[in-house]
């Protein structure tokens, strides 16, 4: 009887663990707030050549080097 109760608790704990791991956290699911702010089409008014002008915090995109966070 005690062994069966222990196995049931263990199985429920395992299922809960799997359930928690299977749901992504909000930071994993969201890369940017709004992808309509820019696009990847070269030569467009929101393309890679203009990314540094769209937002102040994207200014590193204008200098031709990789962005490095501080």
TrEMBL record:
This is Alpha-carbonic anhydrase domain-containing protein. InterPro entries: CA_dom_sf (IPR036398). Residues 1-29 form the signal peptide. Keywords: Signal.
């Amino acid at each position: 009887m005690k062994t069966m109760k222990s196995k049931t608790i263990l199985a429920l704990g395992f299922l809960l663990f799997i359930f928690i791991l299977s749901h992504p956290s909000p930071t994993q699911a969201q890369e940017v707030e709004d992808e309509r702010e820019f696009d990847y089409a070269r030569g467009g008014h929101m393309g890679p050549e203009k990314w540094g002008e769209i937002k102040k915090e994207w200014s590193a995109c204008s200098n031709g080097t990789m962005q490095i966070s501080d």
